[in-house]
Q: What sequence folds into this?
């Protein structure tokens, strides 16, 4: 570096010769040097600012591009930042008295962040010990996979499991708070409630959605933020439901039945007080749908709603009601019951020989197939279809269950004259126990169409008149006579007069055609109290057999009727029905007739 002297000798000498001050020359030289240094420093600062601005601009462009890419792609991992937007709020479901059937319960989910894990092998072994269904070796492989950063382990934990995981002491095992659906009564009303599961899930929250039954049908209502604090009130009575379930389950086991169902309904409002289908399940741990076998063998199958069967002689009540309502017969009309009744190559026979003739009343009491077919012959197919359609037997029966809309009655491909006769005694037309309950309610409530419902109703809104009040009164008397004199004698209960009709239908063979041998669907349709009906009870047993006698007995009089009678005896007091003497009931029935 060449240093410029501050005091150049030539200039100093020249200044002295002219009388100038040499110090001024040094000051000017210093000023010029300082200005040059400032210019260099400013140039360096400006260059640094330009470089910094370029760096920030590049970073902004990169971040913007990355954010756009993330927004345009589907996330493959649960994002913590959006989990707070997931709503798990869901309204409670209660019975008609406000008792909880379904509610939400605060719980925790378990997940792992592998980058925080200290000892993955030990954590996997301990988790396998706490959760027996976890494979420790596979879990360790997942924990040590370099491509995995986040792993779901459990969507819900019990308090005991939370504490056990805490005790492992692994910092990479973390908990996320959430709510799960809880059914405090276990299997009680399982087919009505259906069940719920997790939908969209985040680390800190999970969406609770309905999967079946009322939970799915009322999905929008239960998740509506404006109504989430207001419980959904069903028509079920939890106490009555428990009693019906206990008796029906005992009857199913005692009679070695494959399945059973019971429907208890208010004859005026159509409110379903109890609905039971067996086998059932626990909605807290809903099983997977079956992949093989008959659907009815699955505990998920709702026999009361999804089960459409040929129900046998319980349908005779509607054939006789049509004859009475159209005036083609009276209760005292004599019907030719000589058999067999021949139609082409088909033969219609009675269970036993009832003689050459019976009154219409005795056709009901003794349950004569031939007599019922003869009553329907002059009515014909067109009028029979119209009559059954008024009762709802030819259409899907509406009910607030997701499964109800998918169930369809099975009708004959061609409604022939033979179909008219066989349908009159319960073969050739398949219907559900729920539809049968609504039909019997209409028969005995004065003739007003009943639509079943699972919602508690505050006001009575009668449907259209299907049959006359006189026909309804005649049917009430006949149904009571079936119990007092006919095939349902085991339904006599002191203090609770019952009317009803039995039905023992051969089960169709789904593989070889025709009907199975020694396989019966036994049904008892009852109303009580018989003189002033308030409730209808349908009990159906799939392939029951009573082995207490010298020979196996499968008909409804020996199987479904005793079970129904025990249910009535148990639930009568629970429903607030006061006992009444048989004489008083008979007097009221005679007056009504």
A:
């Amino acid at each position: 570096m060449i240093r410029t002297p501050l005091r150049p000798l030539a200039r100093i000498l020249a200044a002295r010769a002219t009388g100038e001050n040499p110090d001024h020359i040094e000051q000017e030289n210093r000023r010029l040097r300082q200005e040059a240094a400032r210019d260099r420093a400013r140039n360096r600062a400006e260059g640094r600012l330009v470089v910094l601005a370029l760096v920030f601009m590049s970073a902004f462009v990169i971040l913007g591009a990355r954010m756009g890419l993330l927004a345009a792609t589907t996330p493959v991992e649960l994002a913590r930042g959006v989990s707070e937007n997931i709503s798990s709020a869901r309204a409670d479901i209660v019975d008609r008295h406000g008792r909880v059937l379904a509610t939400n319960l605060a719980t925790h989910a378990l997940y792992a962040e592998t980058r925080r894990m200290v000892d993955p092998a030990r954590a996997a072994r301990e988790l396998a010990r706490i959760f027996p269904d976890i494979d420790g070796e596979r879990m360790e492989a997942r924990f040590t996979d370099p491509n995995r950063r986040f792993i779901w382990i459990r969507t819900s934990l019990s308090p005991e499991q939370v504490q056990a995981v805490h005790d492992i002491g692994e910092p990479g095992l973390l908990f996320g708070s959430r709510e799960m659906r809880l059914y405090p009564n276990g299997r009680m009303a399982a087919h009505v409630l259906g069940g719920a599961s997790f939908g969209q899930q985040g680390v800190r929250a999970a969406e609770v959605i309905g999967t079946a039954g009322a939970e799915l049908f009322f999905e929008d209502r239960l998740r509506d933020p404006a109504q989430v604090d207001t419980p959904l009130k069903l028509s079920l009575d939890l106490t009555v439901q428990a009693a019906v379930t206990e008796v029906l389950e005992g009857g199913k086991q005692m009679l070695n039945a494959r399945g059973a169902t019971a429907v208890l309904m208010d004859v005026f409002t159509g409110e379903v007080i109890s609905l039971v289908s067996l086998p059932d399940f626990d909605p807290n741990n809903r099983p997977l749908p079956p992949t093989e076998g008959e659907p009815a063998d699955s505990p998920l199958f709702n026999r009361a709603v999804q089960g459409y069967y040929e129900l046998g002689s319980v349908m005779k009540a509607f054939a006789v009601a049509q004859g009475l309502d159209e005036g083609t017969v009276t209760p005292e009309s004599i019907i030719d019951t000589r058999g067999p009744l021949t139609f082409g190559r088909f033969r219609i026979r009675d269970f036993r020989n009832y003689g050459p003739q019976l009154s219409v009343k005795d056709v009901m009491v003794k349950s004569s197939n031939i007599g019922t077919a003869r009553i329907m012959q002059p009515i014909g197919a067109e009028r029979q279809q119209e009559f059954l359609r008024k009762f709802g037997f030819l259409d899907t029966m509406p009910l607030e269950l997701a499964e109800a809309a998918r169930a369809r009655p099975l009708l004959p491909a061609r409604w022939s004259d033979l179909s008219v006769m066989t349908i009159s005694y319960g073969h050739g037309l398949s219907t559900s126990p729920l539809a049968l309950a609504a039909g019997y309610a209409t028969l005995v409530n004065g003739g007003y169409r009943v639509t079943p419902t699972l919602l508690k109703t505050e006001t009575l809104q009668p449907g259209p008149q299907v049959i006359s009040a006189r026909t309804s009164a005649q049917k009430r008397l006949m149904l009571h006579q079936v119990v007092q004199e006919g095939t349902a004698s085991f339904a006599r209960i002191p203090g609770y007069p019952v009317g009803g009709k039995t039905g023992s239908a051969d089960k169709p063979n789904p593989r070889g055609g025709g009907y199975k041998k020694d396989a019966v669907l036994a049904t008892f349709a009852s109303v009580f109290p018989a003189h002033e009906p308030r409730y209808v009870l349908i009990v159906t047993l799939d392939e029951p057999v009573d082995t207490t006698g010298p020979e196996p007995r499968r008909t409804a009089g020996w199987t479904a009727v005793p079970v129904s009678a025990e249910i009535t005896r148990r639930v009568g007091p629970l429903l607030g029905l006061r006992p009444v003497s048989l004489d008083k009931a008979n007097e009221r029935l005679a007056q009504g007739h």
In short: Residues 473 and 525 are 17 Å apart (CA to CA).
